[in-house]
Design brief:
9 helices
């Protein structure tokens, strides 16, 4: 796993934690604890006691540039399904855990990454890791649920076309990088989305959502040793079989050592957007 990806994941968390702190950008000299679990999953922890808040992000080194032809958008669909409740449930385990604690969660898909992030009172970070472990150990891709979520994603893609920044960015990428993975729409086309079923999601999950492609970051009012201890108990159980060596997306870099293959936005507002990524 490249250092640049790990640094990107960690820097995002540090920035969010500083924004939450009443001290703002005040100096914090706590060291970063970095550990790689036996299954290959990397854990980064930074203690910041300036506010009773913990932020967790789980990053995967896979995004839209790694999708096969005819299945564009599968990474974004999978992101939605990870957070989606099972049939008969009002909320998924992760959403229920975070929201019942008064926290916030969301997710994002980019060309080279997929990330899930939560902000909770610091007493609840263990519950968040436990919920993540449960979701990732037994994902569900029932066709009924996939069909229902597909309509949501298609509407989300249509809404993004009304955002001038998103529209301009996508047209630029499609023109400048035509024929590469980076020229594809992260949300996929309607034609490709109708072909993404439970089997396609299961194959994508099994191929890319493996520990060697994962970085778990925890920043905030936490004890680093305790976080590492619980991460070993909760996240080391996630299997490492089924993945393949990842040497770069269809439009990405191919040189260097090959790494391992690896709350919903409110209904009353347009999804936020950042160039090169799509929020759930």
């Amino acid at each position: 796993m490249t250092r640049s990806f790990v640094k990107k994941a960690f820097n995002n968390l540090v920035f969010v934690s500083m924004l939450m702190s009443p001290m703002g950008l005040a100096d914090n000299n706590q060291a970063v604890t970095e550990v790689t679990l036996e299954n290959g999953l990397k854990v980064l922890v930074k203690t910041d006691n300036r506010a009773p808040v913990a932020v967790a992000q789980l990053w995967y080194r896979v995004g839209s540039s790694y999708e096969p032809d005819g299945k564009t958008g599968v990474s974004h669909v999978l992101e939605h399904m990870i957070l989606k409740a099972r049939p008969g449930e009002a909320r998924g385990p992760l959403a229920r855990t975070v929201q019942d604690a008064g926290g916030y969660l969301n997710a994002r898909t980019g060309s080279d990454h997929t990330a899930f992030y939560q902000v909770v009172p610091s007493l609840q970070w263990e519950a968040v890791l436990g919920a993540q472990s449960k979701v990732l150990s037994s994902p569900h891709f029932e066709e009924e649920s996939v069909d229902a979520e597909r309509s949501v994603i298609i509407e989300e893609a249509r809404m993004s076309e009304l955002n001038p920044s998103a529209f301009s960015w996508k047209r630029m990428m499609e023109g400048a990088l035509a024929g590469s993975g980076y020229g594809r729409r992260i949300t996929g086309s309607e034609e490709s989305l109708v072909r993404i079923d439970g089997r396609a999601l299961s194959e994508h999950f099994g191929r890319w959502y493996v520990p060697g492609n994962m970085v778990q970051v925890v920043v905030g009012d936490v004890d680093a040793d305790r976080v590492i201890h619980r991460a070993r108990e909760l996240l080391d159980r996630i299997g490492s079989s089924g993945g393949e060596a990842r040497s770069g997306g269809t439009g990405g870099p191919s040189s260097g050592p090959p790494p391992v293959s690896s709350g919903p936005v409110g209904e009353d507002r347009m999804p936020e957007w950042t160039p090169g990524c799509v929020l759930a």
